[in-house]
Amino acid sequence: MSTNSITATIRYVKRGEDRNPGEKPYILHYAAPAGFPQNNFTIEPVHGIRIHNLRSSGLTYDQNGMAIATIDNSGGMKPSDFDDDDWIERVYLPELHKSVCRALGAQDVTIFDWMLRKRSPSFPKRNSDEENVDDHQPSLSAHIDYTTGELGSRVDRYFGDEKDAMLSRKYQVINVWKPLAGPCRDFPLAFLDPKSVDPDKDLFKVDEVFPTVANEVFQVYHNPNHKWYYIPDQLDSEIAIFNAFDSEKGQSLAVPHCSFDLGEAGSGIPRQSIEVRAFAFF
């Protein structure tokens, strides 16, 4: 796919909704009780969004919070390998650690979370008879994985008594995304240049509620000034690294992101991918 841009649909939070000021926006990540709303805000598709080629964009990680790097998969990283959690911990994550340190110039990386996503053939609908009905699906609404407040609680949770020593170093919170097979032409990831985001008007705090925990994230309102990018034909030897927080710059370079449908330009088997969340220390 050689084009430098494509027109597609991005899903945003609907502006101007009447909401109960005493009820925080939320979305439930489990089946809601009968009669209880799954979420109390609306996500709407915005069509005709121009999504540019990140490869030829001239954007940099230092200035725009996103980068393309390579990972050594010469030892073999078949999609089926990722079904083995032990293999991920033993083989993939150490290789990813080396790639991220090399790409960002980081001294160390502490991985705190990873997730596989396997698109169901019927996605965005779900058929109960599909083999991977319980698997995580591509995330279709533009979002940032954490608010600053959420990250503060994560630091306490992950580092405990070592928090003060950790906070004395320059660090970033990053997300690293890779398709399990390439070239990826099925619901690739799109990245929003944070320099085109108005944080006071475009970001919307939401609680993502799971059975045992709630995480505060930013969903995103549409703004015609937004500039979107993606990695055409991303290979399984390529990783996308994007910023969520910087200890010196805060969330000024935090990259909103989401999956999107390539439409007629899409092809291939339903996307499978792995995303890793980590602290990078400098």
Q: How would you describe this protein?
A:
Belongs to the asaB hydroxylase/desaturase family. InterPro entries: AsaB-like. It comes from Thyridium curvatum. This is Methyltransferase. Helices cover 16% and strands 33% of the residues. It contains 5 helices and 14 strands. The chain has helices spanning 61-64, 85-104, 148-159, 163-167, 199-202, and strands at 5-13, 26-28, 43-53, 66-70, 108-118, 143-144, 171-179, 189-192, 203-209, 214-220, 228-230, 238-246, 257-259, 272-281. The strands form 3 sheets. The chain has a 5-stranded mixed sheet with strand order 1-3-11-8-13, with no helix packed on it. Strand 9 and strand 10 (214-220) form a beta hairpin. The radius of gyration is 18 Å and the shape is globular. 34% of the residues are buried. The mean pLDDT is 91.
Brief descriptors of the model:
282 residues; alpha+beta; Jelly Rolls; 5-stranded mixed beta sheet; 5 helices; 33% strand; oxidoreductase activity; AsaB-like; Methyltransferase
Strand content: 25-35%
Residue share in helix: 10-25%
Give helix and strand order, one letter per element, not per position.
Answer: EEEHEHEEHHEEHEEEEEE
Q: Report Rg.
A: 18 Å
CATH topology grouping: Jelly Rolls
| pLDDT averaged over residues | 91
What sort of overall outline do the alpha carbons produce when their principal axes are compared? globular
What's the CATH C level? Mainly Beta
Which architecture does the CATH hierarchy give at level 2? Sandwich
**Strand count:** 14
Derived from helix and strand composition plus strand pairing, the structural class reads alpha+beta
Q: What low-confidence regions span 5 or more consecutive residues with pLDDT below 50?
A: none
Count of DSSP-assigned helices: 5
Strand line-up across the major sheet? 1-3-11-8-13
Distance between the first and last residues' Cα: 36 Å
The biggest beta sheet reads: 5 strands, mixed
How many domain units?
A: 1
